[in-house]
Write a structure and sequence with these properties.
The protein is α/β, with parallel strands linked by helices and 190 residues long. The chain has one domain. The protein is 29% helix and 18% strand. It has five helices and eight strands. Helix 3 crosses helix 4 (134-154). The radius of gyration is 15 Å and the shape is globular.
Length: 190
């Protein structure tokens, strides 16, 4: 199976989507040339955020037609991360029909709690100032999750747990998932 040039990646703040992206990026099939010290945030024992994130007020705006500039001359599939892809999934696919979209779903309350435990507005990368306060953040989590679920429904997507077997079936890659979560679901729109 040939992987696409880009895997557009979205999940709500606190959905642990960044950790899922990093598990995939352990494989050489993925381009990690977007990683720099400035594009990293660590919290607790977790690696937090690594690489380019697209969004309002961030280094690069959420423009699905102009996403390659955050990478150096690496090889492999670029994981193109933005919470805001959830607002424009149809546009992402229309603009990039050969690329895939990976959706991560985790319930609103759990995601909101985890985002705050991971640092909330003290997270140093990426920039979450756009959301302004906790009330707006929770509202955005609900809207983004709703959009993700509706898009998946329209695409007749099948949700699964993020497991070693799912990665093998979806990407034809051998990547071990050490911790499986029963509150996180994933799907890929090809």
């Amino acid at each position: 199976m040939k992987l696409p040039n880009r895997l557009f990646f979205t999940g709500v703040p606190g959905s642990k989507w960044s950790g899922i992206a990093q598990i995939l990026e352990h494989h050489s099939a993925f381009d990690t040339s977007d990683r720099t010290i400035e594009r990293e945030y660590n919290h607790h024992q977790y690696s937090g955020h690594k690489g380019v994130y697209f969004g309002t007020g961030m280094e690069f705006p959420p423009d699905p037609s102009n996403v390659d500039r955050g990478w150096n001359e690496g090889t492999g599939t670029k994981i193109v991360k933005s919470h805001e892809w959830a607002y424009m999934l149809d546009v992402v696919k229309q603009t990039n029909p050969e690329d895939w979209i990976m959706l991560i779903y985790r319930p609103n309350e759990i995601s909101n709690e985890w985002w705050h435990q991971a640092g909330g507005f003290d997270i140093t990368y990426p920039n979450y100032e756009y959301y302004q306060n906790s009330e707006n953040m929770y509202r955005a989590i609900c809207e983004q999750n709703d959009n993700i679920l509706k898009y998946a429904f329209r695409q007749k997507a099948t949700w699964n747990y993020f497991t070693t077997e799912w990665i093998k079936n979806t990407f034809n890659l051998d990547i071990e998932v050490e911790t499986e979560y029963d509150d996180i679901l994933v799907t890929v729109i090809k």
